[in-house]
Design goal:
Shape: globular
Strand content: 15-25%
CATH topology of the largest domain: Triger factor/SurA peptide-binding fold
Order of helices and strands: HHHHEEHHHHHHEHHEHEEEHHEHEEHE
CATH architecture of the largest domain: Orthogonal Bundle
Helix content: 40-55%
Radius of gyration: 25 Å
Number of helices: 17
Number of strands: 11
CATH class of the largest domain: Mainly Alpha
Structural class: alpha+beta
Distance between the termini: 51 Å
């Protein structure tokens, strides 16, 4: 069991967006006076509104997702688009999601219950809850736990699908890394960070001139309305085909090295609050709003921490209370003179046990946030109390700290990571566009 971060960030973001109301505002649904329809009612009023290849999307599914998206927009204080516009946007997302899940099934991607249980715990902890408290919050909002688990299972599948179909196929050449590092050596490591919002108007694969003109006109309308004072988040919900559309189009802070040159050239000419011209990429037409900017960049002189730990897993074989008591006992013994390394070899469930729990020199971001926060709070030589992370309970000791010049190897690793992230989003948008265009889709929205 490693303590280093897995690729759960997109999963957590996705599921939190889907169930924001249930987790963050348990009373919101009750205040609306609406409840989840029972099974009998669904059978009476539900109907097919879209066919996606061999699958269907029902009116109930759309209404359920629309209700969640509406709640999320309201909690963000985003003006709601007209209902028919929002409905079309949400339906399009359901279509794309269904096509992706079908692709995942074709190639045999599955998520077992054990992995699902771990992720449920991670979602709960990210909201400062236990799994039991998460269940209660969902129940207060009339969201069955089984429904939540299935949505979460789908999010994990979609994340793994992206890794397999897109991320794992991205290659970064040594020449690209060399060029990136050469730019940094010229002082570009101090380039600004940009707080961005984004709207994508997707263009079909092999689009006709008429389709291109129509989509460009929509993008130009977005620019005109945004510059005229319309709320960008509302425009995102109304127009955007990007994954973050229902989150106000917010991309958050992006360092220079994660922004493709095509976009950076335009963004560098904007002042905070301004909106870009329409930008073209293989995925479609893009409009950006520069919310803010700041000097940043990755410093080459950084603090490293040399640490070791003892990990006890929590599960059916050992409850959290039992693991905590055991770690507290081990801590007392170590404080009284027993060797930490020997205790790690005898007790730790981590792969580092054979090395006495030693993790070596760690850079910021090398470990999961819970572990890193606890480690950073320790003085050299100090022993932590039991620390909870997604992997179990840890006993951490900081052995040494130093301010070090990032090694050549590490610089190349960071450069490769930045370049991969830059390519990944563009490649994913193009892959989604192709998947959507290849899918057989029949709309039956008139059957209300």
């Amino acid at each position: 069991m490693q303590i280093f971060p897995a690729t759960l960030q997109r999963i957590l973001i996705g599921v939190l967006l889907i169930f924001t109301g249930a987790i963050e505002s348990p009373a919101a649904h009750a205040q609306s006076g609406q409840a989840t329809p029972g099974r009998t009612r669904i059978q009476l009023v539900d109907r097919i509104i879209a066919v996606v290849n061999q699958d269907v999307i029902t009116r109930f599914e759309l209404s359920e997702r629309l209700q969640r998206v509406t709640r999320e927009l309201e909690q963000r204080n985003t003006p709601l688009p007209p209902r028919d516009v929002l409905e079309r946007q949400v339906l399009e997302r359901l279509i794309v999601e269904r096509a992706q899940l079908q692709r995942a099934a074709e190639i045999g991607l599955r998520v077992d219950d054990e992995q699902l249980d771990v992720t449920v715990t991670r979602v709960a902890e990210s909201n400062n809850m236990t799994p039991a408290q998460l269940r209660q919050a969902l129940e207060r909002d009339n969201v069955p736990m089984q429904k939540f688990r299935e949505e979460l299972r789908n999010e994990i599948v979609l994340s793994r699908l992206r890794e397999r179909e897109v991320d794992n196929r991205i290659s970064i050449s040594e020449n690209e890394v060399d060029l990136y590092l050469a730019e940094q050596s010229e002082g570009r490591e101090t380039a600004s960070e940009f707080d961005l919002s984004h709207i994508l108007i997707r263009v079909p694969e092999q689009a006709t001139p008429e389709q291109l003109d129509r989509q460009r006109a929509r993008a130009e309308e977005v620019v005109k309305r945004a510059r005229g004072g319309d709320d960008f988040a509302q425009l995102s919900a109304s127009f955007s085909d990007a994954a973050e559309a229902m989150a106000g189009g917010e991309l958050g802070w992006r360092p220079r090295d994660r922004i493709p040159d095509l976009y950076f050239d335009a963004l560098s000419k904007l002042a905070p609050g301004q909106v870009s011209d329409v930008l073209r990429s293989p995925a479609g037409f893009h409009v950006f709003r520069l919310n803010n900017m700041r000097g940043s960049g990755s410093p080459l002189m950084i603090e490293q921490t040399r640490a070791r730990h003892i990990l006890l897993r929590v599960g059916e074989a050992q409850s959290e209370a039992e693991a905590r008591r055991k770690l507290e006992n081990l801590r007392e013994r170590i404080v009284n003179g027993v060797d930490f390394g020997e205790m790690a070899k005898l007790n730790s469930d981590d792969g580092s046990a054979g090395a006495g729990g030693a993790l070596g020199w760690l850079y910021p971001g090398d470990t999961v946030p819970e572990f890193e926060r606890a480690m950073n709070d320790l003085k050299v030589g100090e022993l932590s109390q039991p620390v909870r992370s997604p992997f179990g309970l840890h006993l951490i000791q900081v052995q040494e700290r130093q301010i070090a010049d990032m090694s050549t190897e590490r610089r190349r690793l960071e450069a490769r990571k930045a370049l991969r992230e830059k390519k990944s989003e563009e490649a994913f948008q193009e892959w989604v566009r192709q998947l959507r265009d290849r899918a057989y889709v029949e709309l039956r929205m008139e059957d209300r």
